[in-house]
Specification:
mainly alpha, 6 helices
Length: 90
Amino acid sequence: MVTQNVYTHTHVLQTFFHYIDSLTLTETVRNTGRPSLCRKTFLKSFFLKTYFRLDSLRKLVRYLREFPYFQHLCGFPTLPHLATFARVAT
């Protein structure tokens, strides 16, 4: 059932993610501190949260950790910490 869950939603998600990639979002350029995070990757992950009806950011991070395919589909080379998701969500 898990593998069916992964592959049945792939086409819809890839279509929507292609649309997000075509958008032009302004990125904040910082000269000091940590490198900025890509807004499009977090926008994709928040769409996954809504699409799969996940109640919290903690469940989203757990879902992305359990299914690395969706982590890759969103564009995360490594999964950020839960606090990063909370900071970006605000």
